[in-house]
Amino acid sequence: MAAVVEVEVGGGAAVERDLDEVDMSDLSPEEQWRIEHARMHAKHRGHEAMHAEMVLILIATLVVAQLLLVQWKQRHPRSYNMVTLFQMWVVPLYFTVKLHWWRFLVIWILFSAVTAFVTFRATRKPLVQTTPRLVYKWFLLIYKISYATGIVGYMAVMFTLFGLNLLFKIKPEDAMDFGISLLFYGLYYGVLERDFAEMCADYMASTIGFYSESGMPTKHLSDSVCAVCGQQIFVDVSEEGIIENTYRLSCNHVFHEFCIRGWCIVGKKQTCPYCKEKVDLKRMFSNPWERPHVMYGQLLDWLRYLVAWQPVIIGLVQGINYILGLE
Fold first, then answer.
1. Each residue of 207-233: pLDDT tens digit?
2. Which end of the chain, N or C, is surrounded by fewer C-beta atoms within 10 Å?
3. What are phi and psi of 216, to 5 degrees?
4. SS3 at position 46
5. Helices marked H in the chain
6. Residues in Cβ contact with 302 at an 8 Å cutoff, skipping those fewer than 6 apart
7. What membrane topology does the UniProt entry give (predicted)?
8. How many other C-beta atoms are found inside a 10 Å radius of the C-beta of residue 113?
9. 190, 162, 165: which is closest to 177 by C-alpha?
């Protein structure tokens, strides 16, 4: 039996037509969506058993993939982080080109160019004295921009849900598209910059010599040197150096305040750069206005899985369905 749909004609009268006979060119976007929706239901009618099998495949694949990713991250964290970072950097580019999101592509190219330069500086040996602060300034700037962009996007979405967009005579679909776009920009670049910053922080700290991922540091830390940037903490007026506030951790090691905050927030480190003692982030960020930065960073870490691995898992599920003849 052919599927039919009601379509409005001149004068507001509704007539029933076969879905395959409807001319889509003369219909409004809402009517086109209704017809496409009806066609999809007609196409999948009577395939309930196959749909249930596809759902089971999806659930099983998600569970197995999650277990494998957790084991990989625990056993080989370095390779896991590198592959995740590469996927997060490249996978959205594929969809951008495919869907013609040229604005996102321009921003992606600008971000990639500057980040590539900063990463190149961070991985050089010997390390230039000004490089650590350059790296943390760049990634802290991106972190703050992504944080603000995400908040604005979230507020736009909430305003649209509550109908406040009508006060400014903005269509709901336009307001929602604007909010979701800003939310995506903020979260995506927030996740990406944290992973690049962590990689750069590891390279710089290992090059300076006061930090090692495993084993003892290769240099002894003097009380007058910051283990993050390798510069003197206290300098005279006539000496060349960095003059700023200092921060003492619970292990009594002292750092430039900007350096240790960059190490913990931007570089995702929660241990002392020298002795690896646990850093009390609540005590470091005693100001209630700064604590949301910590929660935002934890949210970005959680979203990494959705951005990097979810498209891969969905593609794997589609491949399994194709091999089994399920469409």
1. 766 655 555 555 666 777 777 777 777
2. N
3. -85, 150
4. coil
5. 29-44, 48-75, 77-99, 102-122, 131-161, 172-208, 257-261, 281-284, 291-308, 310-323
6. none
7. Multi-pass membrane protein
8. 10
9. 165
